[in-house]
Write a structure and sequence with these properties.
alpha+beta; four-stranded antiparallel β-sheet; 4 helices
């Protein structure tokens, strides 16, 4: 059920000025997000794990991804054994191929991110079609080498800024009602002040 904004503030205990500031700031943030989005961007939201608790030699591997049509991103997190470290010569690659094998396997190199909390490699992979793809993550270093793999479902790319604007339509409706209610209230106060002024002059 849609709550009229004037009643919304009263029911929730939020002051009108606070709600007005919230609406204004939320709209500013959303507009900036919408128009900074690229039409070729992948799905909205954080990456999700496609591999967890994998072992290659002494290293524990996790792989997070945004596997979307267009450009998919992969984040490979490498945890060394207790007291150890990831060697500086560690090389990471990601190989992808449709499960249907309609395309040959393609391999992409990953670069090491400059992070202090953990060791992470990242790469971007082009996907031309929504379907199931086989993904292999290959590690090579002086300490240990090996690979781990899985299948992922590549998802369609959103339209970018236009999808964001479409999602904002309900919020836009609430905002319009809010500003309309505020305008009506201002006019009512103005009429009350005018009547009080006229009554004072009549006396």
């Amino acid at each position: 059920m849609l709550i009229f904004p004037a009643n919304f503030a009263k029911r929730t205990g939020i002051r009108e000025q606070s709600l007005h500031r919230f609406v204004s700031r939320a709209w500013l943030a959303v507009v900036l997000l919408a128009f900074s989005a690229s039409p070729a961007s992948a799905h909205i939201g954080p990456p999700y794990p496609i591999m967890q608790n994998r072992k290659i030699g002494p290293f524990a591997i996790e792989v997070w991804s945004n596997p979307d049509v267009g450009t998919g991103s992969f984040y490979i997190v490498i945890d060394p054994p207790k007291g150890g470290s990831v060697p500086p010569d560690m090389r990471v690659r990601v190989a992808v191929q449709p499960v249907s094998k309609r395309l040959p396997e393609a391999i992409y190199g990953a670069w090491r991110e400059k992070l202090l909390s953990h060791v992470e490699f990242k790469t971007n992979v082009p996907f031309d079609k929504e379907e199931t793809w086989h993904v292999r993550v290959l590690l090579a270093s002086s300490v240990a080498s090996g690979e781990t793999d899985t299948d992922v479902q590549v998802t369609p790319t959103l339209m970018g800024r236009w999808d964001l604007l479409l999602f904002l339509l309900p919020f836009l409706g609430i905002s319009v009602l809010w500003f309309k209610a505020a305008s009506v209230k201002r006019k009512r106060r103005k009429r009350v002040r005018l009547k009080s002024s006229n009554a004072s002059v009549a006396r």
